[in-house]
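Let us practice reading a record.
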Amino acid sequence: MKFRKGTDRRYSPEVFQHIYDFFTDVKKAVSSGGTVTVNFKGEDGKVRATQLDVTKEDQFDYVKDEFCNTLQKLGIQFSKDELNYTLRLKYGSSDHTALMKMFESTGPSSITPFLDWLRGCYNKVTKSLNITPNGTLNGKSIDTALASFGFIGMLANAKYKYTHDHDQLSVLATKGNRYYVISENSLITDVTDDINASLTGDEGPINDLKSFSYNYMEQGSRKIGSIVIKQVEDGSKLKVVTVAGFRTDQKGDMG
């Protein structure tokens, strides 16, 4: 994840407060079997807050979607399938009780230091970020801070194991060795996140794209132009994976 210099709408005080408040609400809900507020964009284009019961499987599914979407706002690329896999691997199920155990777990991969760091990023009194314009907090860059948490490392390892177990995005090399993709955040994923933000009410990036006639135009009832814009306007989230390198599961491999 690259923290851009200057003003970045994704890291406005309001967005950062939402990130911390959402994780806090989820922690309370899964511990008590309560509800979580999730924002949905309706067919009329308006965003509405909906209370979802974490004890009901279909509703908790949406909560896990938003859990992963919120991680992605920090540049942490993690999907719901990977979250379900992680919960089943560590706690034996993927329901709200498993997520409760994740929040309550202690040790090197505990989520608590990560949540404490999030709380320290936002000043509720001044309603501002304690993050400098060049992306540092207490002299430490956001990239470095995120990489230092055992919880983030646990997610990265679980993501790798998920890819390994599902044999996705892999290539067969010499002597039967198999290599697996390591995915990192990039400019492409940053732009994709900005465009997807229109699904939750931030329509700035998508409106910028629509401002160019070769991207989007309307001829009567027909909408002509970018399939990206059309997909987002239809309510479908864009997904992208960029290949940064390969990792082998073979020890002593010199390839």
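A brief commentary: The longest helix spans residues 13-32.
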